[in-house]
Amino acid sequence: MASPERERKRKRDANGNPRPVTTSSKSSVSQTAKINLKPSGSHPPILTSIHGVELPADLKFDAYFKTTSVKKRTAEGKRVQSEERDYRLHAQTARIEYDGVSEGQDGLSYYIGVYDPKMSSVDVYSAPLLHVRRHVRRLKEKEIPEKASTGTLLDSRQALSAAFGNRTSRKALLDEQINAITSNTLGSTASADVVSAISSAVDTATALLPTSESLRSGNGNSKYLPPIHADEEGATVDTVYRLDEMIDGKVLDACLSGVDEWEHAVRTHAEAGSTISPHYVASRIRGVIDSGVNVKTRLKVLRLVEHIIEFHRLFVTSFANTVYRPKVFDKLTADDKSITMYLLDTFTDAKNQNKNERQLSKTKLTKLYCWLLIFCLKVEEDGKMDIWDLVQDLQVDRKDVEMAAREIGARVAPLKEQFARLLGYSKDEMREHRIASLTLPLVFPKNKSLVKRR
């Protein structure tokens, strides 16, 4: 009989009576299985360990083995020659190789058992344990067998870039995918002949591109020049480059304050000069006023030329042709801030994406020379000028100004000897003077890379 203490602690049913202790009518019968050690043969099952490696779903491994001769001692102490098999696994993709190798003896033997419930037996097979590692194929090819773990970081980075591509190559592949010609990009022409569809698309895209013949003959470089109207009907030297397309009228009118000072000085018989451009601008103020031909416009352009020369001097004398934007407004003595803004926007670029750091790059410098030559030729009454005065004010090599004159389609010729004598120039001085004339038709430099070979 159970003790009162046991009766108190025993779980009770819904009526409060103690639950009876039930005993299982079926006794657990332990079943034993017979273990049979089976020979693995030449192709045993293989166990693999893969740590931190995600395998592709369609990856297929190939198993193989390498035999090595080993000398062992028997229980009787005799030395016997035997062979050992080193099992391996190998698989590869386009960029990665997977190798499974055994990593030394850990004192354990591994087996795989196959249970047969009908016979109540387990067939046990010996199974080698291999560890799978992955390698970049390009990097593995560069390794030396004796020193496979050595190699500089640069070698590894180059091998990885060759296998998986760097940022530039990946961007190029992405561009090819975006610009690929497919049935979706062809649209309604997808059912038509693909060749004709591509041909029509190329013709449409290249309709406005210049031909090789026009590039050989030369028709101006759009990077440096304003719009050219030489081929228009009734074009003249004054309308080849239109002033209103090069500078806004309001910005040009901002030069009037300096022009009024020049005109007042000429009327009062005072000296009308320029400390910024003592050669070119100073020598032409009185001549433009005395000519009486389109005086106001020519004087405003002449005043703009003076500002461009000062602007050029400010940047060329600075480090790396770079000037801080607020510093330009402080140092440039322009008649109005709109003129300074026009010069900064037209002839400078932002350095390192910093809008306050303005740089006069090589391309912008060539553009400045070209536009300056056009403005100077608009000041001249006959479209001809001696570039020597401009070279002196810019303080540059004469060849730079000659190159700019040829870029705008002007002809550059040496000073004739009879004029040199009238002006009192010696032979050495005559070599420094060149006459730039803007006449129709314009003659542009030929593209040397497109010249036909004979």
Automatic annotation (TrEMBL):
<feature type="region of interest" description="Disordered">
    <location>
        <begin position="1"/>
        <end position="45"/>
    </location>
</feature>
<dbReference type="GO" id="GO:0005730">
    <property type="term" value="C:nucleolus"/>
</dbReference>
<dbReference type="Pfam" id="PF06870">
    <property type="entry name" value="RNA_pol_I_A49"/>
</dbReference>
<comment type="similarity">
    <text>Belongs to the eukaryotic RPA49/POLR1E RNA polymerase subunit family.</text>
</comment>
<dbReference type="GO" id="GO:0000428">
    <property type="term" value="C:DNA-directed RNA polymerase complex"/>
</dbReference>
<dbReference type="GO" id="GO:0006351">
    <property type="term" value="P:DNA-templated transcription"/>
</dbReference>
<keyword id="KW-0539">Nucleus</keyword>
<protein>
    <recommendedName>
        <fullName>DNA-directed RNA polymerase I subunit rpa49</fullName>
    </recommendedName>
</protein>
<dbReference type="InterPro" id="IPR009668">
    <property type="entry name" value="RNA_pol-assoc_fac_A49-like"/>
</dbReference>
<feature type="compositionally biased region" description="Low complexity">
    <location>
        <begin position="21"/>
        <end position="30"/>
    </location>
</feature>
<keyword id="KW-0240">DNA-directed RNA polymerase</keyword>
<keyword id="KW-0804">Transcription</keyword>
<dbReference type="GO" id="GO:0003677">
    <property type="term" value="F:DNA binding"/>
</dbReference>
